[in-house]
Design a protein that fits this description.
This protein is of the alpha/beta class. The protein is built from 8 helices and 5 strands; from the N terminus they run βαβααβααβααβα.
């Protein structure tokens, strides 16, 4: 079984992936953030490093998917390959931070990869408004994220809403996390687990 957790920067994807993996005994695949050689440079100069960063993420995600598809374990994945293309690369292109040439090159690479990708059995989308995202980003205190602009997060949220509205690849669970704190409040985590249980057992019924 392949579960994936999606959502904007600061929505709580990585934390929830960790907690669900521990709760269910799943193997977890995390987004390559801490050891990403392009991320700090990207936040300093988005236009210069946009294409490099997105190709790095795309390659990393595709390798994760190969690992998930080649093994018989149950996996939970922090962010999907769809978000790389339909959210982040699309937003960079639309915002003028990725050139038409680079975007076409990137999409060609993505289109070649996606033929070999099986959608997750369940996609969990963490829906969060801007104040929630900003609060979470400030709380984790990554130095390079301090230069992130609010309009960048807003644009990403718009792309997410559009993508989720049209998501047809598989089973989808939307969780509004604006009033949830599944780290500090056990009841909030139990609430999420109940929703996931309902969807998972539905997969096998």
């Amino acid at each position: 079984m392949h579960i994936a957790v999606s959502g904007n920067i600061g929505s709580g994807k990585t934390t929830l992936t960790e907690k669900l993996a521990k709760h269910y005994g799943w193997k977890a695949e995390f987004e390559s953030v801490e050891n990403n050689p392009y991320l700090p440079d990207f936040y300093e100069d988005m236009k210069r490093w946009a294409f490099h960063l997105q190709v790095y993420f795309l390659n990393s995600r595709f390798n994760q998917i190969k690992k998930i598809q080649e093994n018989k374990y149950d996996f939970i994945q922090d962010r999907t390959i769809y978000e790389d293309a339909y959210i982040f690369a699309a937003n960079l292109h639309k915002s003028g931070l990725m050139t038409e040439r680079d975007y076409e090159n990137y999409r060609s690479l993505f289109d070649s990869m996606i033929d070999h990708v099986k959608a997750p059995d369940l996609l969990i989308y963490l829906k969060a408004d801007i104040p929630k995202l900003v609060g979470q980003i400030e709380k984790r205190g990554r130095t390079y994220e301090t230069t992130m602009r609010i309009d960048y997060l807003k644009n990403l949220n718009q792309h997410y809403e559009q993508w989720i509205d049209n998501y047809k690849e598989g089973k989808l669970l939307i969780i509004d996390v604006n009033q949830l704190d599944f780290v500090e409040n056990p009841d909030d985590f139990s609430f999420v687990v109940e929703k996931v249980d309902r969807e998972i057992f539905g997969l096998f019924s």
